[in-house]
Amino acid sequence: MDLFRKKPLAIPQNAGAEKLSKTLGAMDLTMLGVGAIIGTGIFVMTGVAAAEHAGPGLVLSFIIAGIACVLSALCYSEFASTLPVSGSAYAYSYVAFGELLAWVLGWDLVLEYGVAAAAVSSGWSGYFQGLLEGFGIHLPTALSGAYNADKGTFINLPAVIIILLISYLLTRGVKETARFNAVMVAIKISVVLLFIVTGIFYVKPENWTPFLPFGIHGVMNGAATVFFAYIGFDAISTAAEEVKRPQRDLPIGIISSLAICTVLYIAVSLVLTGIVPYQSLNVSDPVSFALRFVGQNMIAGLISVGAIAGMTTVLLVMLFGQTRLLFAISRDGLLPKSLSKVSAKTHTPVRSTWMVGSLIAVLTGFVPLDRLANLTSIGTLFAFLVVSLGVIMLRRTKTDLQRGFRVPWVPLVPLLSAAACGYLMYNLGRETWIGFIIWVAIGLVIYALYGYKRSNLNTKK
């Protein structure tokens, strides 16, 4: 058995029904990145991270997580400009490390995108219900949240509906998806800036004392938790086959979107913990709550609208990334070929889009949010770690490979990226690790029973 057979670099792209259309530019990619990154992390997770982990030191948590992401983003940029194909880290590791690790990483990314979408849709539902209540509309308790016998909730109906609506939009075409995303991104950035400009006048420096109530360990736990807020820039690379100038535009989209979002996260965390004592921030809508706390109810309502727009774009990009990932894995034969079938009319993988949407709708409808976020973080951190090491591997084995972007100071930067991701993984809880190991084990069983025999590299022997 050759478990580490590598995919050749010069792979002709499939034609006909499996060909994706190249319509995206650097601005589209930047907007997709911002659309993916700013969402539940800033509008929901900030409160929990401050109250339970970092306190006012949350700003340090965002900086630490941001540094880890910047290092990883540089590594992603080199791979994306060198191998502009669908599949993101899965495709990169297929070339750098071989099929087994590629499958494990692809299976891991299925977890990342799927669970992230489910978690974000849960947050979306919370803000949407809050908006409805502002108009005096109240959903029946049974339909207002994931299954919880103590609270009387059975299914999170708004979350299910938004997942299905986003799935429908994705089947209409990538350009249409990008246009919708750009409008939503403009709305949510405006709302985030409105919060910063309004909230800064209500900041009380005494709320920043003590700055590290949980110590440096709390800051690191907070960094591992808010890492969820940065997830998304890697999804840009899944669109590689739909980019007009991938060698140039992919690095621009990845790095610029991450830079924009990091600055906004730092500003929001400073203002948020300056307005409200950190102990009071363990709520589902901390940004709106902070403005209500100081009597700015009208602006708080606008924040809710922006949060809904923000989380809508996150869902859009996460589901987009998931479908392109399955497209790539299926095209390689490791999953059923039907998942890589592309509509001749819209040039999108319609079948896999509806399959993904349906499965995530079920997940988000019944599984509570607090069990989802850390699973997404550990899956993403693992992917970042492998990609970082993959840069070193390809630099040594493919010295003459044409690279549109080169990571500086190799191997130092990739090693620092891998070490930072590994340390953040270490700081995640035992339950998260158990869930991750179980998921990987399930993936290995699927590969042994299906993927290995049906791989394109196996059938071409």
Automatic annotation (TrEMBL):
Annotated coiled-coil segments of the chain: none
Gene3D superfamilies reported for this sequence? Amino acid/polyamine transporter I
Keyword Phosphoprotein annotated: no
**Which Pfam families does this chain map to?**
AA_permease_2
Subcellular location(s) of the protein: Membrane
InterPro entries, A to Z:
AA/rel_permease1
Instruction: Give the record's keywords alphabetically.
Output: Membrane, Transmembrane, Transmembrane helix, Transport
Q: How does it sit in the membrane?
A: Multi-pass membrane protein
Q: What residues form the membrane-spanning segments?
A: 29-51, 57-77, 89-107, 153-170, 182-202, 214-233, 254-278, 298-321, 350-369, 375-395, 407-426, 432-452
* Protein name per its UniProtKB record: APC family permease
Q: Name its species.
A: Paenibacillus rhizoplanae
Kindly list the organism's lineage: Bacteria, Bacillati, Bacillota, Bacilli, Bacillales
